[in-house]
Amino acid sequence: MPETKDLRRRITIDPITRLEGHGKIEVFLNEHGSVERAFFQVPELRGFEKFAQGRPAEEMPQITSRICGVCPTAHHMASTKALDGLYRVTPPPAARKIRELFYSAFVTEDHALHVYFLGGPDFIVGPKAPAAERNVLGVIAKVGVEVGQKVIGMRRKLREIMTAIGGKAVHPVLGLPGGVAKHITPSEQEKIKQIAKEAVDFGSFTLETFNKLVLQNTEYVDLIRSDAFTHRTYYMGMVDEANLVNFYDGPVRVVTPEGKEWKKFAAEKYLDYIAEHVEPWSYVKFAYLKPLGWKGFTEGSESSVYCVAPLARLNTAEGMATPLAQEAYQQYFAALGGKPVHHTLANHWARVVELLYAAERLKELAEDPEITDSQIRTLPTEAPREGVGVVEAPRGTLIHHYQTDEKGIIQKANMIVATQNNAARIAMSVEKAAKGLISDGNVSEGILNMVEMAFRAYDPCHGCATHSLPGSMPLLVRVHDHRGDVQATLRRDWDGSIRRS
Amino acid sequence: MTEPAAVPKNPKPKVAFYWCASCGGCEETVLDLDERVLDVVVAVNIVFWPVALDFKRHHVEALPDGSVLAAFVNGAVRTTEQQEMAHLLRKKAKVLVALGSCAQLGGIPGLANLSSREGILQSSYCESPSTVNPEKVFPQTLYKENGQSVSLPGLFETVRSLDQVVDVDYYLPGCPPTPKLLWDAVHVLLGSELPPKGTVLAPDRALCEECPRKDTRPEKLTLKEFKRPQDVLIDEETCMLAQGVVCLGPATRSGCEALCPQGNMPCTGCFGPTSRVRDYGAKALSAISSIIDSNDPEEIEKIVQTVPDPVGTFYRYSLPSSLLRRRKLAPAAKL
Amino acid sequence: MPEKELESPRAVQNGFEPKIVAFFCNWCTYLAADLAGTSRIKYAPNIRVIRTMCSGRVDPQFVLEAFARGADGVLIGGCHPGDCHYQEGNYKTLRRVLGEMGIEDERFRLEWISASEAERLKVAVNDMVEKVRALGPLRLEIKAEHFPEEVAA
Amino acid sequence: MDARNGDRRIGVYVCHCGTNIAATVDVKAVAEYAAALPGVVVSREYKYMCSDPGQELIRQDIVEQKLNRVVVAACSPLLHEETFRGAVAKGGLNPFCFQMVNIREHDSWVHQDRQRATEKAIALVRAAIRRVALHKPLEKKRVSIHPDVLIVGGGIAGIHAALTLANAGKHVYLVEREPTIGGNMAKFDKTFPTLDCAACILTPKMTAVKKHPNITLWTLSEVTHVEGYVGNFEVAVTRKPRYINEELCVGCLECIEACVYKQAKVPDEFNLGLGKRRPIYISFPQAVPQIPVIDPETCIDFKSGRCKKTCIEACGDRHAVDLKQQPKQETIKVGAIILATGYQTFDARKVPDYGYGVYPNVYTAPEVERLINASGPTGGEVIMRDGRKPQSIGIIHCVGSRDENTNRWCSRVCCMYSLKLAHLLKERTGAEVYNFYIDMRAAGKAYEEFYHKLLEEGVHMIRSRVAEVTDWAMTPEEEGKLVMRAEDTLISFVRRVPVDMVVLSVGLVPHEDAQDVRRLFNISCSSEGWFLERHPKLAPVNTFTDGIFIAGACQAPKDIPDAVGQAGSAAAEAMVLIDTGYVEMEPNTAYILEEECSGCKTCIPLCPYSAITFLSDKKVAQINEVLCKGCGTCVAACPSGSIKQNLFEDEEILEEIQGVLANA
C-alpha cells in the first residue's frame, strides 16, 4: 500500500464466537491506520423474559435452561432456587445436597471441557505453536493419547452422573420448588463415589499438567501478565459464610480493583447493585454496578465495569473450601503477585483451581450418608409471589428473578446471564487488544490470535462448545477503505493456514 | 483433519454445521458422542461450522452447489442472517438436516411467537427491572456514529422452523437429540441408501411405547383434576398421568428412551409429533383433555382450568410449526 | 388455479362476509340442517358444512386447520351431551388455546342441536354469522412472502 | 391443487332436482366451475340425477370416460347416497369412490340469494372433488342376523306387531312392564267411530298372544340393558316378581277371594284410583296373563310377616303362590327390536284453571272411560265422586294440547274420543252434554260422519277454549254446580255454563321416562320427546339406529287404526331384516395401526360402544370392527394419530376443509 494513502479503514472480524448468535467485531481505523473505535457486537435477541410471562413458574427451570445448552444446569439451578424463594420453601437437607452434588459434577465437567478443548490448546500446545496443532488433537499429541482418552472419558462419566440424577445432561429435569424430582439410590451413590474419586485425581492431574506445561514456561507467564490482557476492574462472585468460593449458594460479594470488599449482598438485593446499560449497536445489555452509575467502557475504581467468572471468583473470595484447591489457590496468587489478579488470561489458571475444588466438593457430597435420604421434597404451602435465585455459573454470577400471580403464573421475569456481567469488560478487552496490536494499518495473524485469546479467556456463555475442534478458531479480517470497499482479506482457516486475497 | 482443507489428500464427504436461534445444546450432543467424536472428525471433512471455524458466507458461496454431502442446521429462524444462511446451505448441500427441536418445530425460542417483536424489545430493553434506559435506546439494524456505521441482523416478527424457510430433507428431533440418535443419523447419511425425504430420524411410535412406566397406566384412566408437579410427591414407578400429572408421552414421538420420566418428571414433548400428526399441540391437547372425567360442562371447565397454561404446555416446542404458528398480531402490528 | 378466476367479487362489493366451517354430526345437527331444508327455514349462507359421523370425530387439528386456511369461524354441531360423545373437555381446552392465540371466543362454537331442532340451528348459525361479522375477518395466515417486510427497521 | 389428483379421473354431476335446486343455485355455473378443477374429466348438470336416465349417465361415463371417482351434488346423502353408490357400482366402480354433496337441503332450500347460494354450492363441490380424490375402495362387511325379535310394550301396537311376526313364524319376546298386556286400549269402553267394544276386539288378540307358541310373553318386566348392533342385539330384561308362579297358576283366582282382606282397600291402578283392589289382585277380568299379582307394598305378610297366608291355603297343592319369589334376570339375543311403548296422558293438574284435583266432579277422559266401562269400578254406571248422577256434563277439548303454555301439538284423538264420551255419557245418563272445542278435527274414515251423528243426537257444541271452571255461583241456578266460563267464538259472547260434571279431554304426551328408554336403545327423540323416525314420510317406522323400529303412540299421538297400521309395517320391516339373513355394515369403522400404536390407552375409555380392548401380549389397543359404530371419537383422540377411520380419514377431512376454504 502506498505511503501517501489515507489509511482510514474498517476491519470486520465476523464471527469471532457466539453468544446467542455469532459475536462480531467492527474495528475502525483512523487516517493514521491506528484503531479509533472497536465495536463488539452480539447480533441476536431471544426475549426469554417476555415469553416466560404466562408460563407456570415451575416450568422455568426447564424453559430457561434453553437459554444455554452449554450451561443449562446453571440456568436450571438458578431458576430452581428462584422457585424456592417464590414459594418460600426450604429443600430438605438431602435435596439441597443432591442439587449441589449435581451442580459440582456439572462445574467439574464444564471446566474440564474448557481447559482441554477450548482454552487449553492456547497454553498446553502453546500460542506460538502451528495453529494446525492448536486443538484437542494437538493437546492429545502433547500430553499423550491415554491422557486424551482420560479427558474424554472423565467428561463422559461426569455426564453419566448428571443423566442419572437429572434425567438429562443437557436440559435436566431435576429442580422443583422445595426439592428435587428424584432421590439417589445407594447403588447410584456407590457409582458416584467412584467417579468422584477419579474426578479429584483428574483435577490434581490437570493442575500438574498446567503447572508443568504453562507455569514453568516464563513465556506464557509473561503473556498472561502482559498489559494487553489486563484490566483493573471490580470483581463479583458468590462466597459462603467464610467468604470462600461457592458455586451453589451464598451471598454475592464484590471487591474493588484494589481487592477490598466493596459490597456483600443477598441475591434478593441484586437490583440495588446491578444495572444494565443498552447500546444501539448490540443486542446484548451491558451490566454495571448500579450505585456507581454507567461510566462507559472504562476501568478503575471510578468505573462501574466489573468482571465475573473464575478470575473474578478467586479475586472475590478469601480462599477455597477444600484442601487441595486451597493449596492451588495460594500458589496461584503467589505466582501472579497477590490479589487481585487483573490479567484476563489468568482465567484459565483460575479455572483449573476451581475444577479441583468442584471435584473435591463432588467427592465430599458423594460420600455424605444423607445423600441417599428419600426425603427430597418440601411441598409448597404458601402462595407464590416473588423469588430471586443466584448461582455461580462456570462463566460467572447468574441471576434469575420471577414475579408471579397467586396461581404461580409468571407475570415478570428478569435474568442477568453470566456473560452479560462480562460484556463490558469483553468489549474493552477486544478494543484494547485491537488498539494494542493494530498500528499503521498492519493486520497480522498475531492480531487474530491475541484478539481471539483475549476473547476466549472469558469462555463466554455458549462458550462455543467445540471452539477448537478441530483447528483453532479461524478468523477473518476484511480491510475496507474509507469508502467501505473491501481492499484486502486476511483469513486464517480452521486448519491454521493463512491466506491473503 | 489436520491438513489444509484446500488440498485434501483423499477427499472425504463434506459436512457443514450451522446454528440459528438455538442454545448450543445440539452442539453439546455432538460432544456427547464422547470418544466417537474423533471418529466423526476423521470420517468427514467439516467445511463450515461457525462455532468452530470461520468460513464466512462467501466461502460457502464459493463451494459448488450440492457439493456438501450434508448440512446439519439447528435452531429456529429468527433473524435475516439466519434466513440467508439457511438458503445458502440449502443450495450447497445435497442433504439438509434439521437438527433438534428448534430447527424441526421452532423449539423454545418459538414461544416468542406468543408476543410481538415490539413486546420482546420493550420487555428486554425497557421493562426489565435491572435495565436503566431512560432514553429508550434500542439496538438498531443500522447504527451510525460519526461516519462509522455498524449493522445488526434484523429480527423477524415471527420465529419459524427451518422447513418454513427452506426445503428440509431430514429431521433429528429432540431438545437436544440424544447422542445415540445423532450417531445413528450420521451412519444413515454416510450409508448407501437414504431414507425417504422428510423422514424424522427417530422411531415413529409415541413415547409410552418405551416408557418404563407404561404398564402402570390403568386401561380406563379418567381424571377429575390435573396436578402440578410441585404439588404432588411423584411416585418413581407409576405412570405420570395415572398420578394426575400432565405428561405428553402419549402424543410425543419416542426415541429419547423416556429420559424425563426416568428423571421422575413428565414428558414435555420435545421430540414433537409422530409422522401421522400435523399439529403436535392439538394432539397433546386431546391426549390430556380427553381423559377428563365428567359430563357436566361446569365441572369440565373446572378440571380444564387445572391445566394452568395450555399453549405453553401443549406447544412448548412446536408453536412456529403449529397450524396457527403464532399469536394473532394486533391489527396495528399487522402487515 | 381456476378457483381464483371464478371467485366472485361480491364479498368485496358488499363488505365482509364471514366464512364459517361447520362440522355437523351425522345423526343430529346434520339432520337438523336437512330438516331446516325440508321446512324451508332460511338462514345465512356463510356456513360450509362438513359431515362427520359424530362430533367426537372433530379432531382439534381440524379446527386449527380451518382457522389456518382462512375460516373466520368454526362451528361444531353435535347431539346433546350424553348422547353424542364429543369430548367437551377438548372443546373447552381448545377454546383457551385459541384465546391465547388471539382468536376470539365468538369465532369458535359448540352447539348441541338434535335432529329435530331446525329452528335452533337457524338461530345458532345466524347469531354466529352476525357475531363474527362484527369481529371482522380473522386473516391469520402469515404468507411466507411477508417475512422480509417483517424485519425490524 | 394437488399431485394426488394426478391419476384421478373424476366425474361431477350437478342435479337440478327439477327447480328445487336450479331455482336458487346456478347449476350450470357450478358444473362449469367443477369442469375446470384438476382431476375432473366430466362435469354435467341434469334435471333429476336420481332418475334412471340420471343414474345411467353416471354408469355410462364411468365406462366410456374411465372415471375412477364420482361426485354428485344433489339432495341430502341421507336420502340418495345409497342410490348413487348403486349407480357407481353399476358402472363397475367401487361404490365408495363416490362423494355426495348436499346442495338442496343445505343450500337451495335454505337460502334465497342466488349468487351466494351458488358460491356455497361451488365451495361444497370443490371440497367434495378434493376429498373424493383420496377415497379408497371399501367393502361392506356382512353380518348375519339373529332371527328373534324383541317387542317392548304390550299395548295394541305391540300386540299386533307380535302376532304378525309370530304368525310369520318368527320368535318374539314381548316385554310389558305392567302385570297385564293390553295397554291403554284395554281401559277403554268403546272405540270410535264404530263404537264397538274395545274389550271385544282386543281381548282375543291378547289371549292369542298368550297362546302363541312363537311368543314369549314377559309381563312385570323391563329392559335394563341393550348391547350390540343391528341383527345381533344382546338385551338384558329384569322380570319383577309377581309372587305367583306363572307355570303353576291356572288362573282360578281363588287366592284373591281367600285374601285376609275381606274387601278391597287399595286404590286400583287399572281403574286410575276410582276403584279399590286387594293386595293380591288381577288388573281386570280379561287380563293376560290370567294370573293374579301380589303387591308387596300392601300385603300384610310382606309388611309384618304375620299373615295367615290364606292365599297359599286357597291355592292348595298347586303351590303357585310363592312369597319368596325374587327378581329374575333374562338375557336374550335378538336381531331386531320394535319399540311400542305408547304414551301417557297429560296431567290435568298442570291447568289449574280447570280445577282438576280441586273439584271432585272434574274428571279426566281416561277416568270417565273406566266410569262408563261395564267392568269398571261402578260397573258402568256413571256415578260421580259425590255419589250423584250428573244431569249436565261439560267436556273440555284440547287440555294439554294445542296450547302454548303446555303442549303445542294436536293430540289427534281427543276430538273423536270426546265425541265418543259425549255419546256414551248421554246414552248412560241422559244428561245435557256440552262440548267445548277449538276446532273439530274429524279427519279419518267415518269420523266426520260420526261427528254429524253426534250433532243429531243433540250434543251441544260450543266453539271455545274454556277460561275456567269454578264453583262460584253468581245466579241461583248456578248454586251447587260447576260453572264453565267460556267465550263462544261463533257468537263472540261470554257464556257461563253450569254443569254437574266436567270432563277434561287430556292430550297424549310421551312417557316421562321416554328419554331414558331412548338412551337405552340409542335412538333419537324429537324435541317434544316422541321417538324420532328416520324419515317422516319414507321411513316412518325406522329409527336412525339400524334394527330398531318404532310403532304406535311412542312415535306421535295416533289412534288405534294408525297404531295398528304402523305396528304392521314395523313388523314387516323387522321381517325384511330377518329374512334377508344378513346386514351389510357401513365400512366407516375405525382401525388401529398396530405397528404405530404406543399402547397409551387414551382411546379405551372414550369408546361409547366399548369396542376397544388392550392386547396385553402386544401391548397395543385393538378395535372390534363389528362393535365399532364409526363415531370416530377414538380417531380424533389418538394422540399419536395411530387410529384411522374408513371414509373419514384425517387426510380426507383435511382436504375437505381446505376445499371449502380454497378461496378464503
List the helices and strands and how they pair.
The complex is a heterotetramer of chains A (501), B (335), C (153) and D (664).
Chain A: E1 10-13, E2 24-29, E3 35-41, H1 48-52, H2 60-64, H3 72-87, H4 93-118, H5 120-125, H6 136-143, H7 145-166, E4 175-176, E5 179-180, H8 186-215, H9 218-225, E6 234-238, E7 252-255, E8 261-265, H10 270-273, E9 274-277, E10 286-289, E11 306-307, H11 310-316, H12 323-335, H13 347-367, E12 386-393, E13 396-404, E14 410-416, H14 418-437, H15 445-456, E15 475-480, E16 486-492, E17 498-500
Parallel strand pairs in A: 6-11
Antiparallel strand pairs in A: 1-2, 1-15, 2-3, 4-5, 6-7, 7-8, 9-10, 12-13, 13-14, 15-16, 16-17
Chain C: H1 2-6, H2 10-13, E1 20-25, H3 29-38, E2 47-52, H4 60-68, E3 73-78, H5 88-100, E4 108-112, H6 118-135, H7 147-150
Parallel strand pairs in C: 1-2, 1-3, 3-4
Helix pairs in contact in C: 3-6
Chain D: E1 10-15, H1 27-35, E2 40-46, H2 52-64, E3 69-74, H3 77-90, E4 98-102, H4 104-108, H5 114-132, E5 141-144, E6 149-152, H6 156-167, E7 172-175, E8 190-191, E9 196-197, H7 198-211, E10 215-218, E11 221-229, E12 232-239, H8 254-258, E13 266-267, E14 276-277, E15 280-281, E16 293-294, H9 300-303, H10 310-315, E17 328-334, E18 336-339, E19 344-345, E20 362-364, H11 365-371, E21 392-399, H12 414-429, E22 432-437, H13 447-456, E23 460-463, E24 468-470, E25 482-488, E26 493-499, E27 501-506, E28 508-509, H14 514-521, E29 548-550, H15 560-580, E30 582-585, E31 590-592, E32 612-615, E33 620-623, H16 633-637, E34 643-645, H17 650-661
Parallel strand pairs in D: 1-2, 1-3, 3-4, 6-7, 6-18, 7-10, 18-29, 20-27, 21-22, 21-27, 22-23
Antiparallel strand pairs in D: 5-30, 8-9, 11-12, 12-17, 13-14, 15-16, 19-28, 24-25, 25-26, 31-34, 32-33
Helix pairs in contact in D: 1-5, 2-3, 5-17, 6-7, 6-15, 12-13
